[in-house]
Amino acid sequence: MNKVFLIGRLTRDPELRYTSSNIPTASFSIAVNRNFTNQNGEREADFINIVVWRKQAENVKNYLTKGSQVAIDGRIQTRTYDAQDGSKRYVTEVIADNVQFLDSKGSNGNMGGGQSMEGPTPYDFEQPAPATSNTTDVSSDPFADFGASIEISDDELPF
């Protein structure tokens, strides 16, 4: 059985592409916190590449941005390709069967409940919270609690 469930935040805006037969596909990565801390007491995260197809790919591109929290239901897939230098490269990624919003662009990090990716969530239309509310602003740095900074590069990805 090959089944994966992940909850995390997007580390970059989704990239939407179309196959030669005009099928939409989107790729993005999410940061998923580990359930334990390292020797220094810091919580680390894993960065997982996600691929989504068809209508969900278009919805991901239209409604999610860097920092958005999502739940992913899918399967792990490994593929290979030949790099420009002639070496064989292996890519492991999650092919998402289902992507759900856990918050939306305008929700400032409030958990919105598992909304399906069929279109905008009800939270896309709510009024901003008053300035005195107790909310978390994720627009500043949603990954500030992940410990040491890391460089993320798309240079080695084949797409």
The low-pLDDT segments are 108-133
Radius of gyration: 17 Å
- Strand order in the sheet with the most strands: 1-3-4-6-5
Helix/strand class: mainly beta
Number of distinct helices: 1
Give the overall average pLDDT: 78
Helix content: under 10%
Major sheet description = 5 strands, mixed, barrel
Strand content: 35-45%
Overall 3D form: globular
Distance from first to last alpha carbon: 28 Å
Task: Determine the CATH superfamily.
Answer: Nucleic acid-binding proteins
The overall strand count is 7
CATH architecture: Beta Barrel
Report the CATH C-level class. Mainly Beta
Please give the domain count.
Answer: 1
Helix/strand order, N-terminal first: EEEEHEEE
The name CATH uses for the topology is OB fold (Dihydrolipoamide Acetyltransferase, E2P)
Written description of the protein model:
This protein has 159 residues and is mainly beta. The chain has one domain: OB fold (Dihydrolipoamide Acetyltransferase, E2P), CATH 2.40.50. The protein is built from 1 helix and 7 strands. It has one helix at residues 54-63, and strands spanning 4-10, 15-18, 24-37, 43-53, 69-82, 88-101, 115-116. It is globular, with a radius of gyration of 17 Å.
Describe the SSE topology.
Layout: E1 4-10, E2 15-18, E3 24-37, E4 43-53, H1 54-63, E5 69-82, E6 88-101, E7 115-116
